[in-house]
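Example A, followed by Example B.
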Amino acid sequence: MPARKDPDASTSVPSFYGAELRFKREAAGLTLEQLAEGSFRGISFLSQIERGERRMPLDLARHADQRLGTDGFFERRCEDVAKARNTGHPLYFLDVPDLEKEATSLEEWNPSVFPGLLQTQEYFRGLARHVGPLTPPEKVEERIRGRLKRAELWRRPGRPTYWGIVTESAVRNTPLRPEVMAEQLEHILDLIRSTRSVFQVVPQTAPWHPLQHGMAKIMGFADAPPLVWTEGDFNGHIVDYPSTVAEYRRRYDLLRAVALPPDASLALIEEAARTYRHEAQHGDRAELGGVAQEQLQQRRRRGLR
């Protein structure tokens, strides 16, 4: 059997804490499986952390401190590792890109905007301008780079299966320029069809439905229990308590039933993309006053041109 290759703790902060975790675990006489037990994390996940390939999430740091008797060491150092791995995402979000890569399935619900994995650069710039108008331009560009890095997931041979759901309002009611929305919708159509993914739209005729408030991302794994990621304007957190994850699962399944079928959803998006493209080419918005603008919005909602 070849000798085990230990991580070089001097190469990075994640490698340093990964090596320290392995040292403390072995000193306690625990296997990877024993340390992972009760953490809702898989053995491979823990092994990658020990090799310095992934940062330790806060929930696992607390679990390790408790099992290894390390007096909060790993919890206190989580932020150090996060800063070392910062790639344009808020600190509270840094676990998500790694989890997305490890997932075998991703199921997303976002009631008001398109999920980050589906966003174009211009769509995100416009979104940032409206929801965070005081955000410095360099910070916006940094976050765009982070999203583009996440979107490399679509080109991976072993990418997770994907299922996304949004409301019709996210498609039709937007302050963004028609050319931006046309490009965004065309991007979603290309992505969903080329990857054989599923995308649904909850119609405006169903204003009340399961998961009424807030976004949710359900992530399934081959060797670990599923997790749910939820997010607000300034924070987000991983839900791993089995009964709560199961409730998210049930409500997401009910939401599928409320949404338009996949083919009808893509047809709606295709029609909306044509409408936006026509507006962009003919300058409809620039020539319309307030009343006419509202009439145009009503026509969009009815799927008319």
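Example B, a separate protein, is given below in the same form.
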Amino acid sequence: MAARGASLTIAAMNTSTFSSATPSDEDATPQLPRIAVLATGGTIAGAAADATNTSGYQAGVVGVEQLLAVVPALSTVARIAPEQIASVDSKDMEMSLWTTLAQRINTLLADDDIDGVVVTHGTDTLEETAYLLHLTIKSDKPVVLTAAMRPASALSADGPLNLLNAVTVAAHADSRGQGVLVAFNNKIHSARDVVKTSTYAVDAFQSPDIGALGWVQDGRVEFQRSVVRPHTLATEFVIGAKWPHVEIVVSYAGVSRIAVDALVAAGVRGIVVAGTGNGSIHASMQQALADAASQGVVVVRASRVGSGHVMRNGAAADDALGFVSAGSLNPYKARVLLMLALAAGATGPVMLQKTFDTY
């Protein structure tokens, strides 16, 4: 009930400061790019009992029109086409919503009147959604995800500025061809590299080892480097109706083989292991995973560390065991790539290793 009251307070703001573009709006500002803003919920659309509460809030209760209404400066950056795709806490993200979101973005970007897309999202699974879109969007037009660490009702909420910066990046010519981007706390990250690194800080997203692509501040966008690995139009991946069953297990002191055996019995097609260090795996779990690989289950070695990369034939004899190295992908992004690769028909550790080395 407390969250409801905060939501009503936000809803009472003057929404006349923003509305979707009408023909007269377009005639008045024909030079501005048209950016679709797709809302999915998350903390950026969250509300709490009072302005000092940044943890006990309800996510996804503020609608897209309300989010846009509190950022009147958007009208100087782009013509906005808002759309509410979902209203979820991103911890509850489902693959069916991934399918809906990717298909909708592809449809919008095929329209000559749409110059780019911004997606508002929860922070918990943003890096997974961003990487999925990075591999499946079939356009070189900008797609930018953004989010917030503080709910919309909070004192010094970070969502409004992140939203303005995301639209600014999506409207900028240099963003084209960079794949899916994440604009957060004045930084621009590649979807492949970005990870959430803090449970509370407004600077919660980083690109370990590689660093951000660039920055956005006060309407200025600057890229310091370009994305190198293939993405969007250069991938063979498409969003389909079926998602292969892939799960994640973790190696730690004293781990047993119970989880791996249960997943194999359940019929999974792939297992990503978050190993220690350079993707090393406890002997008990490694034997279980080797048994799984011998039964046709794809095993991908990643690391739980948070940065760095997993060397092939490093901590485990991948060639002998039939394992695949995730390289610099964390376990959660490795799962996304493995699902897409299996759906695209990739089979066997050699073909799959090439996929991970490429993307």
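On Example B: Residues 95-109 form the longest helix (15 residues).
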